[in-house]
């Protein structure tokens, strides 16, 4: 039986815009964890026995329910982690679209693959097939409470797996909503369940032999811990960890469009996105013009109540996150960084706000040079040429996503090949799409979510040889 700490009343919903505690929930103990895993195991058996058409019908019905609940869910997300109401609604819509995408394409992505010339392996027929692993544990973060969970849940369930979600402790409302959504759509009870538990309970759940695999989106430290425990248990993992994504701007690029996109790339989700552009590396020939455009647009951002339709930037999700970001910026300034722009914020004491800020001259002795900044802070770097720009881009331990702005097709191809990242966006910003694989390299993790690759991650690729 899985063990964990006794239940305590320790999970709270705290509104980041006010600091007010809105609700509290009991954490779940060993008996509830055991029931959850046992029910998930039974659901996995049932899902494996159903056809794609049945699972797709359930998934589409769950997507319809999510869309019908959009306003309620969006407002709950805002009060839990502070993103703007406009972006919260978009997150719900994107999640429902992803559910329908996998309902439409799972059978195609997981179809048997016959070997074209089986006689080469001495067979009359040879093929590979994808089959579900069983129960998969998902450890998910707070920054996209619905989307992060859904980009695992939709493909996992359509593949015939069951999912157990350990969500971030500051978004229990989102976790509890997801706990019931798929059952409401028609999936067997236990197909996707949420556990309100602390991080200390995760290791024992990973060790449970009924858990077949683990996926985590979170910090580098959390990834190392989960990877270590899963490795001891010899279980498959997918880790999507931090990023310090470069955004390169080369001569000839549309600077007005690049600057406008740079603001969106950095400030989306109040700057709390793993694939946000964080380091803006600009060729010296266009540096001054781009910096002026970028600074002006950042200074004009509206910071305030995230429930207001016109707000651009809300509060950070946690007080500790705001303090961490403030410490990184203060350290950079102490070491010689210069503040080029800073937007206005609400009055002191009205929430966990941090002003959207643009810095330059951040040197290698500053924390911001290598650390991920998780909030509305952008850093400008001047590059003498293409080679220096690429070297700066690759000069961190991370490798999640990246972007490059150039109108030179040959240069674009060279930079795409040279950047050490899981994705490169040319003349655009890094965005996750259900149609495209998503994931990183180096300290940004391994494995892929989304696309065909994402649904195959938690399947057994079985070889079949028929004489």
Automatic annotation (TrEMBL):
<keyword id="KW-0521">NADP</keyword>
<dbReference type="InterPro" id="IPR047110">
    <property type="entry name" value="GABD/Sad-like"/>
</dbReference>
<dbReference type="InterPro" id="IPR016162">
    <property type="entry name" value="Ald_DH_N"/>
</dbReference>
<dbReference type="GO" id="GO:0004777">
    <property type="term" value="F:succinate-semialdehyde dehydrogenase (NAD+) activity"/>
</dbReference>
<dbReference type="InterPro" id="IPR016163">
    <property type="entry name" value="Ald_DH_C"/>
</dbReference>
<protein>
    <submittedName>
        <fullName>Aldehyde dehydrogenase family protein</fullName>
    </submittedName>
</protein>
<comment type="similarity">
    <text>Belongs to the aldehyde dehydrogenase family.</text>
</comment>
<dbReference type="GO" id="GO:0004030">
    <property type="term" value="F:aldehyde dehydrogenase [NAD(P)+] activity"/>
</dbReference>
<dbReference type="InterPro" id="IPR015590">
    <property type="entry name" value="Aldehyde_DH_dom"/>
</dbReference>
<dbReference type="InterPro" id="IPR016161">
    <property type="entry name" value="Ald_DH/histidinol_DH"/>
</dbReference>
<feature type="domain" description="Aldehyde dehydrogenase">
    <location>
        <begin position="8"/>
        <end position="464"/>
    </location>
</feature>
<dbReference type="InterPro" id="IPR044148">
    <property type="entry name" value="ALDH_GabD1-like"/>
</dbReference>
<keyword id="KW-0560">Oxidoreductase</keyword>
<dbReference type="Pfam" id="PF00171">
    <property type="entry name" value="Aldedh"/>
</dbReference>
């Amino acid at each position: 039986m899985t063990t964990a700490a006794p239940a305590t009343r320790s999970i709270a919903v705290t509104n980041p815009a006010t600091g007010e505690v809105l609700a509290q929930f009991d954490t779940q103990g060993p008996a509830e964890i055991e029931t959850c895993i046992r029910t998930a195991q039974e659901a996995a058996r049932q899902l494996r026995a159903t056809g794609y058409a049945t699972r797709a019908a359930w998934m589409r019905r769950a997507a319809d329910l999510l869309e019908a609940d959009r306003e309620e869910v969006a407002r709950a997300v805002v009060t839990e982690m502070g993103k703007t109401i406009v972006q919260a609604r978009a997150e719900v819509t994107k999640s429902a679209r992803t559910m329908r995408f996998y309902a439409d394409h799972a059978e195609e992505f997981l179809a048997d693959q016959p070997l074209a010339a089986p006689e080469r392996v001495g067979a009359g027929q040879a093929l590979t097939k994808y089959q579900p692993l069983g129960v998969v544990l998902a450890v998910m973060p707070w920054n996209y409470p619905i989307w992060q969970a859904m980009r695992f849940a939709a493909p996992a369930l359509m593949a015939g797996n069951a999912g157990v979600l350990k969500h971030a402790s500051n978004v229990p409302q989102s976790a509890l909503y997801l706990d019931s959504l798929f059952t409401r759509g028609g999936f067997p009870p236990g197909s996707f369940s949420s556990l309100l538990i602390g991080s200390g309970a995760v290791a024992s759940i990973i060790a449970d032999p009924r858990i077949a695999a683990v996926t985590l989106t979170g910090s580098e430290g959390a990834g190392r811990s989960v990877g270590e425990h899963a490795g001891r248990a010899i279980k498959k993992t997918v880790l999507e960890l931090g990023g310090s994504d470069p955004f390169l701007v080369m001569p000839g690029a549309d600077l007005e469009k690049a600057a406008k996109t740079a603001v969106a790339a950095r400030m989306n989700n109040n700057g709390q996105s793993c694939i946000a552009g964080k380091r803006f590396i600009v060729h010296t020939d266009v540096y001054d013009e781009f910096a002026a455009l970028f600074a002006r647009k950042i200074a004009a951002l509206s910071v305030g109540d995230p429930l207001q339709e016109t707000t651009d930037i809300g509060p950070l999700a946690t007080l500790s996150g705001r303090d961490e970001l403030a410490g990184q910026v203060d350290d950079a300034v102490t070491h010689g960084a210069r503040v080029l722009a800073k937007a206005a914020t609400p009055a002191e004491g009205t929430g966990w706000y941090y002003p959207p800020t643009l810095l330059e001259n951040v040197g290698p002795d500053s924390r911001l040079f290598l650390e991920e900044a998780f909030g509305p802070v952008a850093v400008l770097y001047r590059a003498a040429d293409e080679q220096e720009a690429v070297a700066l881009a690759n000069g961190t331990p991370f490798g999640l996503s990246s972007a490059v702005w150039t109108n030179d097709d040959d240069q674009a191809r060279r930079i795409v090949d040279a950047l050490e990242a899981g994705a490169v966006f040319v003349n655009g910003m890094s965005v996750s799409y259900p149609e495209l694989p998503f994931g990183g390299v180096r300290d940004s993790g391994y494995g892929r979510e989304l696309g065909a690759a994402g649904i195959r991650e938690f399947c057994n690729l079985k070889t079949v040889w028929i004489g």
